[in-house]
Amino acid sequence: MSTKQQLSIVSIVGNNTSDCGYCNQDDTSYTFGIWAHALSCTDYQALIDRGWRRSGKYVYKPDLRRSCCPQYTIRLDATEFKTTKSQRKILHKFNRYIHGDWQPSQERPGDQVMKDGKTDSKKPPHKKEPAKETTLLETIHAGEQEKSKAEEPSGHSFKVVLEPSSFTKEKYEIYRKYQQEIHHDPPHKITAEGFKRFLVDSPLDQESHGDVEYGSYHQKYILDGTLVAVAILDILPHCVSSVYFMYDPHYAFLGLGNYSALREISLVQEFHTSSEDLKYYYMGYYIHSCEKMKYKAKYHPSDLLDPDTYDWYSYNDVCKSRLDQHKYTSFANNSPDKSSSSSSSASATETHTKDQSSTLPSGWMDPKSIDEQNDLDQVLIIAGKSQVVPVTMLVKFHESSEFRDEIKDYVASLGLDLAHRLIIA
C-alpha cells in the first residue's frame, strides 16, 4: 500500500442554480460546489458516498429536495451481479461481430445468419445444443482478439486499453462526433478546451494500493486498430465510478453504451480478486423521472443512497415503489429493510429535526448547530503562500459574518469528518 499521504485542497464555490439538463426547465437545478485543486482517492470515495460527484475538477452535491429532477447516487455490488438474458444477448452479439459471425447489414427478422455471413430464410433453424454457462469475465474476454483481417477475413481485431486520463486528438474527435450526433450539441459549443476540462482534467492523483492503481483513467476501445470508444473512469478504494462514456456514432449498431456498462462491471470483478474492498460499480446519478436513466436500475442488485442518512437501500425492494409515488423521498423513513452494506449514518451531531430538514438542502447539517469553537477550530485553510491554519485564526473570520456563513455552509454540506480532512485554499 502507498505510504504517501495525499492532501485534499479545495476552494469553496458555494450554492449554484442552473437550468436542468434533464427536463430543460430554467433555474430548477440546485447544487453546492467546491473546486478541487487536489483530492485524495479516499476523500473522493467519502464524497461520493455522501452524494457528491465530480465534473472535471468541479465537485458538486445536488439538493434533491429542491431540484426538479432529484439525482440519487446509484451503485451495484459487482460481486453479486448476474446478467439478464437481454444483457447476455448484447455480449454475444458483440462477440459474434468481432469473430466475423455477424454483420449488421445482413440480419433481418426471421433470417438465420450463417457463419459465412450469408442468410438463408428458407432453411428452418436447427436446435442448438445447450450453451455452456460462462461467467461475465469469460464472456467479456472472449471478444478480445488480435487476429488481423488478413488472418481472419470476416473477423476483426479488438482490444481494450486502460490508461491514465490524457488528451489526444483521437479522443477529442470521438468526443466531438458523440456530442454532435448523439447529444445534438451545436458544433461551436464543442471545443478541445471544454473536453479537457470535462473529461481529462481530474483532481485525483494516481495512488498505488497493492495491485490496484487508484485514480482517473480512460478505457480505450480499439477496433481494427482504430479508436472507437472511450470510457472515463475513476478507480477508488471501494469502487469503479463511471464518469462518462463516448463512442463513434458510426459504431452505434454494436450497442456500445450497454456493452460498456457490462465491461466496467467485469473490471470491478477483476479488481476485487486483488482488493476485496473494491467491489462496487457506481453509475453516477439515477433520476427516476428521466426515461434515459432507467437503464441504470436494470443492473442487479442495485442500491440507491438515502439523501438524508447516507445509508444504501435496495432499488427493487425499497426504492422503486417509493419513487413511483414521490419525486423526492428519504428511503430511511418507515423502511426497516436497509441494504446489507451501508455507509456510516450521519452522526448524532450531524442530524437535524424534521422542521429544520424541510428548509435545509438534503443531507446537510444545520449550519446553526455548528459550534464555532469546537467544530470550526479543526477546519483548515491555507493562509499566505503555504501556511495551513485553523480558519478561526483568520481576522476575516471574526470580522465578516458573510465569510463565517460561507464556512458554515461548507461544513454543513460536507459533514464534520470531511470538513476536517479537506484543506481550503
From TrEMBL:
Q: SUPFAM superfamilies, per this entry?
A: Acyl-CoA N-acyltransferases (Nat) (SSF55729)
Could you name the Gene Ontology cellular component terms for this entry?
Answer: cytoplasm
Cite the N-end aminoacyl transferase N-terminal domain residue spans from the record. 18-89
- Region Disordered, as annotated, extends over 101-155, 330-367
Into which EC class is this enzyme placed? transferase
Q: Does the record's keyword annotation contain Cytoplasm?
A: no
Enzyme Commission (EC) number: 2.3.2.8
Any idea where the N-end rule aminoacyl transferase C-terminal domain is? 170-306
Q: Which UniProt keywords apply?
A: Acyltransferase, Transferase, Ubl conjugation pathway
| Compositional bias per record (Low complexity), positions renumbered to this chain | 339-348
The organism's place on the tree of life at top rank: Eukaryota
Query: Per the record's keyword annotation, is Repeat included, yes or no?
Result: no
* Gene Ontology terms for molecular function: arginyl-tRNA--protein transferase activity
Q: In which residue ranges is the amino acid composition biased (Basic and acidic residues)?
A: 108-132, 141-154
What does it catalyze?
A: an N-terminal L-alpha-aminoacyl-[protein] + L-arginyl-tRNA(Arg) = an N-terminal L-arginyl-L-aminoacyl-[protein] + tRNA(Arg) + H(+)
Q: Which Pfam families match?
A: ATE_C, ATE_N
PANTHER family per the UniProt record, alphabetical: ARGININE-TRNA-PROTEIN TRANSFERASE 1, ARGINYL-TRNA--PROTEIN TRANSFERASE 1
What is this protein for, i.e. what is its function?
Involved in the post-translational conjugation of arginine to the N-terminal aspartate or glutamate of a protein. This arginylation is required for degradation of the protein via the ubiquitin pathway.
> In which family does this protein belong, per the annotation?
Belongs to the R-transferase family.
Q: What is the protein name stated in its UniProt record?
A: Arginyl-tRNA--protein transferase 1
**What organism does the record attribute this protein to?**
Absidia repens
